[in-house]
Amino acid sequence: MKKITTLLLLNSCLIFAQSSDELQLKEIYKQALTNSKCYSWLDYLSNKIGQRLSGSDNAGKAVLYTKSELETLGLDRVYLQEVMVPKWVRGEKETAYIQNGKNKTNIPVCALGGSVATPKNGILAEVIEVHSLKELETLGTEKIKGKIVFFNRPMEAGLLNTFEAYGGAVDQRGAGAREASKYGAVGAIVRSMNLRLDDYPHTGWMGYKDIPKTQYIPGAAISTNGAELLSKSLKENPKLKFFLKQSCMQYDDVLSYNVVGEIKGSEHPEKIIVVGGHLDSWDLADGSHDDGAGVVQSMEVVRMIKNMGYKPKNTIRVVLFMNEENGGRGGDKYNELAQTNNENHIFALESDCGGFTPRGFSFECDDANLAKAQTWKALFEPYMTASFTKGHGGSDIEPLQSKKIVKAGLKPDSQRYFDYHHAATDKFDAVDKRELELGAATMASLIYLFDQYGIVE
After folding, report:
1. How far apart are CA 263 and CA 313, in angstroms?
2. Can you tell me the mean pLDDT for 140-154?
3. Contact by Cβ (8 Å): 331, 319
4. N or C end of the chain: which has fewer CB within 10 A?
């Protein structure tokens, strides 16, 4: 009889907790959808400041703006973390064309981040089309030397997970110029990481690693329509030439900052929960999806916590990381300081997949903590955000180490994300206010649950 009574009491407590959590999530979503500041914050970041490439004046303005806004929220502490970041400048708008006999056809291109410039008058050379890095080895120096290598492997449209499609194609962007230079190429152009056919080239980071500077060759992205036209034209005339001119420059590293705000825990202030996104963006547009959305959603999480009068058990820290796009130095610096200060992080949540409708989370953790998180799926089902799977947490929280930590990434619907990613189309008007707010509510809900119930240690 005593055993039955104990079980009844435990079930009653579980039902009460579930009911209490349901009410808390309902209030979080209501607050986010009726009383949020994240859309107006994004409006300012995008339309008053604009692109925020690391090392730029606008990146500095974004640091000051977000710090100032966090200070208005009544957090226990708001501060900056110094971090040295690369300073790469695009320069004049790039020009490119296909020269097919006497005909010239202008093609949309943009320099890849970190690339060197072409010679002052540009380069004009024959083109060789490839579909993988390995294909370069097969062709060899004899067929590549003196030419522009055209990497034309599309993102795989048949994959439902567009991030998987991106991961399967992006190596040619990151390493294409470096590998092509080893066979005597004079330049590299890469099909944009985009599933849609359009005229917008998508930039992104590329690197030369340890090859001598004398072997650096320019790398540029070509729009998907441009790639289709160039490929078709090469089939008709393999001897056609391609002209590319860009004037980008790499300068010495400059000082920038991560922006940090925190609410001290009422029971376990030594245990830290992080929520964040990256403050920098590429320079072709406002970076509203990548990652203005993640920045303002993370700010909104701590704003709601304060506004609702919720007293977290653990310290909740919002971190706006600098330099995710072309170096990852903000995430590295945050972890370095966390190790120096012997901080204990138990949970980290990142939003860096755009401001589209949230679907759930990807968890980077052991099986026990994944199982624990999955017990909360029923709470998210009314909001259609109950996709809880194992996967990548996020680039900025990836370096973060602690004795035992769970990492997670917000998973919005990804089908349209790569239409905007790193392109001139990533502007404020591409973000829907309600979708952005739903993402903030979904993040705040998961933060609340991990704060209430902790992790499996």
Report:
1. 10
2. 98
3. no
4. N
Average confidence (pLDDT) over 255-267? 98
77-89/123-130 β-pairing: unpaired
Write the pLDDT tens digit of every residue in 79-89.
999 999 999 99
- List 132's β-bridge partners, or say none: none
Contact 350, 361 (CB under 8 A): no
Q: Where are the domains of the chain?
A: 28-87+252-453, 94-249
Q: Please give the single-letter amino acid code of residue 140.
A: G
Q: Give the residue from 237, 239, 327 showing the smallest Cα distance to 282.
A: 327
pLDDT attached to residue 19: 86
Residue 205, helix vs strand vs coil: strand
Find out if CATH 3.50.30.30 is the number for domain 94-249.
Answer: yes
| Local structure of residue 285 (DSSP, 8 states) | S
Rg from Cα positions in the chain: 24
Residues with Cβ within 8 Å of residue 258, at least 6 apart in sequence = 80, 81, 83, 279, 319, 320, 321, 322, 330, 333, 334
Q: How confident is the model at residue 7 (pLDDT cuts 50, 70, 90)?
A: very low
Question: If you write DSSP's letter for every residue of 373-395 in order, what string do you get?
Answer: HHTTHHHHGGGT--EEEE----T
Rounded CA separation 58/260 (Å): 18
The per-residue DSSP string of 216-281 comes to: ---EEEE-HHHHHHHHHHHHH-TT-EEEEE---EEEEEEEEEEEEEEE--SSEEEEEEEEEEE---
9-58 pLDDT, tens digit per residue, is 444 444 545 689 999 999 999 999 999 999 999 999 999 999 999 999 99
Q: What percent of the chain has pLDDT over 70?
A: 96
Residue type, 107: I
Rounded to whole angstroms, the Cα distance separating 238 from 226 reads 16
What residues are annotated to the active site? 324
The pLDDT value recorded for residue 217 is: 98
DSSP 313: S
* 227/153 Cα distance (integer angstroms): 10
Task: Specify the CATH architecture of the domain 28-87+252-453.
Answer: 3-Layer(aba) Sandwich (3.40)
DSSP bridge partners of 317: 262, 274
